[in-house]
Design a protein that fits this description.
With about 180 residues, this protein is mainly alpha-helical. About 75% of the residues lie in helices and about 0% in strands. The longest helix is centred in the middle third of the chain and has 22 residues. About 25% of the residues are buried.
């Protein structure tokens, strides 16, 4: 038997939501808000104009990539990537999304430099985020491009002695972005 597709579930949920009045919808949203931190971050990002919203996502992301060493919490690259996706879906903010991708690369690089951590999968995840930053870089406003380049230059400096080819990869990506930024002027 084939499992039902998510679209079919959403259709059924929409039908059920049509039966709710305003109070019922508010109670449902309150329950979702109280259910977990991810829901709270999403609703706050979507519905409030707090400037500190991105910091909640950044903290969750950094804690997933570079947990306190003595905490025995595992590194969770998928969780950190999911945090970026949640932010993008909640806000639709490309500048903030790029900022979080930069934080991902910065935290991962620092973790590797400070603790000597890394393997093929770890560095591949960092490289994918670098590639994603490079892909959206030209769409950023000029001021945000300059900020991103400063941050990427710091990452390049920190990564220069990391093995696994990562330091070279960072240098190459940053060099290509710098060239594009210079040519765009």
């Amino acid at each position: 038997m084939k499992p039902q597709r998510a679209k079919n579930h959403w259709s059924a949920i929409k039908k059920s939501l049509d039966t709710f009045d305003r109070t019922g919808l508010l109670m449902l949203l309150a329950d979702l808000y109280r259910a977990n931190a991810e829901n709270r971050r999403f609703l706050e990002s979507r519905l409030l104009s707090e400037t500190g919203t991105i910091e909640k996502y950044r903290r969750a992301l950094v804690e997933a990539i570079y947990p306190v060493p003595m905490s025995r919490r595992p590194i969770n690259l998928k969780g950190a990537s999911a945090t970026i996706t949640q932010y993008r879906r909640a806000t639709g903010d490309p500048v903030g999304t790029t900022d979080l991708m930069l934080s991902f690369v910065e935290a991962g690089t620092e973790q590797s430099v400070d603790l000597g951590y890394g393997d093929d999968g770890y560095f591949a995840a960092l490289e994918r985020k670098l590639d994603a930053i490079a892909a959206v870089f030209d769409d950023l406003p000029p001021n945000d491009q300059a900020k991103a380049l400063r941050r990427l230059s710091r990452v390049r400096g920190r990564a220069q002695n990391i093995g696994w080819g990562y330091g070279d990869y960072v240098a190459d990506v940053v060099r290509r972005i710098e060239r594009r930024a210079t040519n765009a002027k």
